[in-house]
């Protein structure tokens, strides 16, 4: 990406390796942890969407209650009664940022990510960012996705 280009990628604040030692047996386990900015900090969101650009299995039937994350089909349904209005300048900036980000992610073989969209109706603001973009789409990821979808496991 060019310096100064608009982006929606959530900022990575740090990558850490955490080691824990179990009290019984002394077995150690390591976990890599990625810390990203909290796009929702100090926001009072009335709707929150995790969008992947697909309608297949992307509907949350339980949309009641606070902190419910809605999906692509929920957004399509909501646009009929509660559309999200964005000014022309903001729309062009958003389109440019998404184009930049998705082109960059595709160039490094990252194909699995989400656009997080939050609506703050009180402040009339839309908060968004591209999240979960740290894994390349490799054959093992493709296999994992297929196994989860089919419920089939072989040795």
From TrEMBL:
ATP-binding recorded as keyword: yes
Q: Which organism is it from?
A: Actinidia chinensis (Kiwi)
Q: What is this protein called?
A: PIPK domain-containing protein
Pfam families referenced in this protein's UniProt entry, alphabetically: PIP5K
- Organism superkingdom: Eukaryota
Q: Which InterPro entries match?
A: PInositol-4-P-4/5-kinase_C_sf, PInositol-4-P-4/5-kinase_core
What are the protein's UniProt keywords?
ATP-binding, Kinase, Nucleotide-binding, Transferase
Give an example GO biological process: phosphatidylinositol phosphate biosynthetic process
List GO molecular-function terms, semicolon-separated.
1-phosphatidylinositol-3-phosphate 5-kinase activity; ATP binding
Q: Which PROSITE patterns match?
A: PIPK (PS51455)
Domain named PIPK is located at 1-155
GO cellular component terms given for this protein: endosome membrane
């Amino acid at each position: 990406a060019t310096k100064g280009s608009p982006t929606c990628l959530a900022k990575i604040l740090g990558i850490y390796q955490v080691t824990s030692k179990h009290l019984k047996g002394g077995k150690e386990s390591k976990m890599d942890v990625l810390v990203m900015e909290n796009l929702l900090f100090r926001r009072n969101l009335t709707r929150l969407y995790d969008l992947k650009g697909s309608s297949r299995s992307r509907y949350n039937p339980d949309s009641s209650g606070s902190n419910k994350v809605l999906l692509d089909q929920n957004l399509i349904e909501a646009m009929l009664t509660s559309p999200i209005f964005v000014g022309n300048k903001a729309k062009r900036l958003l389109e440019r940022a998404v184009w930049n980000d998705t082109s960059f992610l595709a160039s490094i073989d990252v194909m699995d990510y989400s656009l997080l969209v939050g609506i703050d109706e009180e402040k009339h603001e839309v908060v968004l960012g591209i999240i979960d973009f740290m894994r390349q789409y490799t054959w093992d990821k493709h296999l994992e996705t297929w196994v989860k979808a089919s419920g089939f496991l072989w040795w």
